[in-house]
Amino acid sequence: MKKKLRYRPNVAAVILSSKYPLATEILVANRIDIKDDAWQFPQGGIDDGEDPKDALFRELKEEIGTDEVDIIAEYPEWISYEFLNKNSKKMYPYDGQRQKYFLVKLKPSAQISLNTKIPEFTEYKFLSYEQTLEQISYVKKPIYKKVLTYFKKEGYL
What we know:
This protein is α+β, with helices and mostly antiparallel strands.
């Protein structure tokens, strides 16, 4: 009998700069815990009983130091993937993550700070749609392409 996989509920944010819609600049950040460049969108777990939107704002505050964003759209489905390192103690007892993606815009007053209580990123930058797909970690590329293509097709990017 095949083992049923356990997925950690998670939210992820495609963050647009406050210049949007005049300019489409997407935030990517480089993970602090991976030696080689590992650029990705901010993301994090959903606590038991927590609403995904509440988790989004909490995770943004924890990871980039601000939750001053407006939600523009959300990807209509949950996306699941399995972890590459199945023996990781960090994510035990999960085999992967089940993510809800949100497209958000930074408010003009938002101040990004990676110097958070538990830093997750070493640096961040804003990139174009094409640059984002080139820069991000190969592990995330298929999912990010799917999500970004959807937001582009819907006219947001």
